[in-house]
Amino acid sequence: MKKEDLNNLLINEDATVVDAMQAIDRNVKGIVFVVDKNICLKGALSDGDIRRWLIKTGDVNASIRSIFNKMPVSIYREEIPSALKIMRKHSIDAIPVLSKKGKVIDVIFKEDFDSETVAEDNESLKGVPVIIMAGGKGTRLYPYTKILPKPLIPIGDVPIMERIIDRFTAFGVQKFYATVNYKKGMIRSYFNDLNATYKIKYIEEPEPLGTAGSIRLINETFPKPVIVTNCDIIINADYGEIYKYHSESGNVMTIVSALKNIVVPYGVINSGENGEVLSMDEKPRLSYFVNTGMYVLNPEAIEYIPENKFYHMTHLSDYLLSQSMKVGMYPISEDSFLDMGEFEEMSRMEEKLNLKV
Predict the structure, then answer these.
(1) Are residues 43 and 69 in contact, defined by beta-carbon separation less than 8 angstroms?
(2) CA 176, 334, 155: angle at the middle one, nearest 5?
(3) Which of 16, 149, 165, 177 is the right S-S partner for 131, CB 3.0 to 4.6 Å?
(4) What pLDDT is recorded for position 342?
């Protein structure tokens, strides 16, 4: 492994949760290995470890010292031929290779053994209904959306809505509901011409009803929680794990939430009375969790959406909270949330999906 690639898999034990999330975003491997100043192995930290911590505490600025696994499985150089066997024994996907002094000199991944790790079909969402909110005009994407409806705006050479559907079908989803309004005929025509194996039922809004209002137009009773997603986002996460978390959490509504880091490009002054300067922070970083536009809803939550009224998902979450019902979040990293809502973000989405030539 190249030194640069290895460095992207290592993080100092003094780092924060935010630092770890950004490191995992860079390496795209779902894990970092914690080292001291001498690059000696101290532990391992996965995106799952971070997610559990954030769900429990919400503290993105905490030190990783209280989170990471302090007894990770590792091997020495002479054990490399047995790496796959050891990973299978411990049900892990990555293993660090150490020098005799305990320094991390390499990391081996199960995926490196392509011929022996053929992926099986994932049916973790088989039978789960997915609702795609595809009725908006996409005014932020004018003039593109003067010609095409937002769901058909291409990312690379594939429309965004088709990319969203393809990701769900990879987890076994076969039934989709699309709420449509603006240029709905074009959306129908495109997907009808695909002869796809999945089915889409179109729900036509007589007028714009917001990000939740049109759900009440679906004349069906769902026997299990449903997934609702905007038509202009891609979430790089295990959808099966999101659904499993919701089912086990007791949430009535789960909001998939992405960490957003904002760096203030100035020195910030902390002041006291009478204009006294107490301290200064140079270009501080602020971290927040933002709503991605993907949700999991229990069937009973849908009943609280008023009929024939403009209503957003934020209105629904506020109402559920006012009735002391449990609304939770499923946190993902900043780079796991791709939003096509504006032109700059379209370019970033293509880059993250490796579609730029």
Answers:
(1) yes
(2) 50
(3) 177
(4) 60
**Of 159, 232, 233, which is closest to residue 191 (Cα–Cα)?**
159
pLDDT in tens, 59-83: 999 999 989 999 999 999 999 999 9
| Amino acid making up residue 200 | I
311 has pLDDT over 50: yes
Alpha-carbon span 108 to 125, nearest angstrom: 30
In this predicted model, what pLDDT tens digit does every residue of 175-194 receive, in sequence order? 999 999 888 899 999 999 98
Cβ contacts of 37 within 8 Å, gap of 6 or more = 12
Q: Whole-angstrom Cα distance, residue 253 to residue 215? A: 14
Cis peptide before 143 (omega within 30 of 0): yes
Q: Which domains does the chain have, with CATH numbers?
A: 3-116 (3.10.580.10), 130-352 (3.90.550.10)
Instruction: Give the pLDDT confidence score for residue 295 in this predicted structure.
Output: 98
CA–CA dist 176, 242 (Å, integer): 18
